[in-house]
Amino acid sequence: MARYSPERKEAILKKLLPPHNLTVAEVAREEGIAVQTLYHWRDIVRKEGRPVPGKTLTTDDWSAEAKFAVLIETAPLSEAELSQYCREKGLFREQVQQWKQDCLAGFQTSEVQTKTIKQQAKADRAEIKSLQRELRYKEKALAEAAALLVLRKKPQCALGGRQRGELTPLPERIELIALIQEAYTNGARLYKACAETGLSKRTYRRWYRAGQVQADLRPIAARPEPTNKLEAHERQQILSVCNQEEYASLPPSQIVPTLLDSGIYIASESSFYRVLNAHGQLNHRGRTQAAVNRSKPLSYRADGPNQVWSWDITYLASTVKGQFYYLYMFEDIYSRKIVGYEVHEQECGEYAAALIQRCMLREQCFNTPLVLHSDNGAPMKSLAMKAKLEELGITASLSRPRVSNDNPFSESLFKTLKYRPQWPKSGFSSLAGAREWVEKFVKWYNDEHKHSQLNFVSPGQRHAQLDNAILAKRKEVLEAAKARRPTRWSKDVRNCEAVGAVTLNPDKAPIEGVINAA
To answer: Are strands 338-344 and 502-504 parallel, antiparallel or unpaired?
Structure first.
């Protein structure tokens, strides 16, 4: 029987370890040693506490004795020595550390192990509960989505384009409530089902009470009459006043301030309009057309008379087809007063230059800065007009080409002129007749016309700066009427404040240094 030295045995057993990792059978064939002998040597070494592999090739499957032996051998080693040892044995440092933790866990007392197991079980139960809750939530969400999808496909579920507060008939209410309840039973939340039908949850609660669908009670509700309602004789008085010869051609916006100037108050302007409308007497009169909004050029601001003027030329038709007279008209935009006018048989820059000089003489405004705004007509841009404006120290302002709204004050004035009831539709028979008619219009416009943009004082009163006193008197009349019957007023009395500064084309910032701001 052959005998092997300890060194020979050690060399043969190393072949079972990394990096060779040979099996016992492979070593037996290579060395010519019986398999039983190798197993015997391995068992002896294992009993001595030295790490040797088991029946498998990987280090993770080593026996507990081999792993414990590795821990004993590596306990006194430094980090560098441990790394070298692991490389020689075919191990990783992480494996050794894990084996160490497993070994320490084995030394724990039964009480600590029990506590750890309970904590793990508690964490597992919490996770299971969370997963179950999430599953229930997803099941509910799926059921709700299916119910809402079914509800959405029903054509009678939506209220359509109905306005807020509009009456809903009882049969339609019953049908909508049934659809909502069906979706709610199938898993949809109530407010979601209501939203699909165009209702709020609050409306649903109001419609469905005590197990029944409620009808809308608004049509049969008792409604008290307002305390400030006009009485029958007051309505008749409004109709009588509006149909008097003096006010027959005036709108309520002109009638009410005229009555206030006489110390008479019947009702508000809106009440006049309502009464006339109720009796079919509020209809469009004249040849006016709807206004067209257009952009504005640079603006100028006037806080007193004779600061910004506007002028233009308009055609006055004659009785002869194709023949016209030309009205030159200058207006103060602050007071709306016509400060100058003339009628000629032709358009000419020289006529306009002479007229502007006479206007300044009449108004005595040579020493004040003045802006003159106009459109881009030939007389406005003529050399004679430009020279005269430069001579008089007037700042010229021109609107954009083909934009009539850039000169709004003159255009509005011409509309008022041509839509007067006395306007001769067939034209003027002569130049003298045209001048006479314009003279009467200017007198009426400056002294009698209650201008809506001036809080219904005349342009002449505004130009003379009498508007504050006139409006203060109106307010006294209104306050006295309110004191006699306060129930007629749900708010304050009519606005009787004077109009402040006026801006020409106020959409853009005014030019600094030309006209001082108010």
So the answer is: unpaired
Write the CA distances from 267 to 234, 238, 475, 484, 494, integer angstroms. Answer: 8, 8, 14, 13, 10
At 298, the amino acid letter reads: L
Mean pLDDT by 10 residues, the chain (518 residues): 72 67 74 78 67 57 73 84 80 83 71 78 91 91 86 64 75 88 88 85 90 87 86 92 91 93 92 93 79 64 93 94 95 96 94 94 89 91 93 89 78 93 92 96 95 94 94 94 89 90 73 42
Tokens encoding 327: 């009205």
Domains located in the chain, CATH noted:
6-106 (no CATH), 137-216 (no CATH), 232-278 (no CATH), 300-465 (3.30.420.10)
Structure token pair of residue 90: 């075919």
Residue 9 in 3-state DSSP?
helix
Beta-carbon contacts of 377 under 8 Å, excluding residues fewer than 6 positions away, are 312, 313, 347
Contact 426, 319 (CB under 8 A): yes
By the 10 Å C-beta count (0-12 exposed, 13-18 middle, 19+ buried), 244 is classed as: exposed
The Cα–Cα gap between 94 and 515 comes to: 89
Could you tell me where the DSSP H helices lie in 364-403? 383-392
Backbone angles phi, psi at 395, to 5 degrees: -85, 125
Q: What are the residues whose beta carbons fall under 8 Å from the beta carbon of 297, sequence distance 6 or more?
A: 397, 399, 400, 403, 406, 505, 508
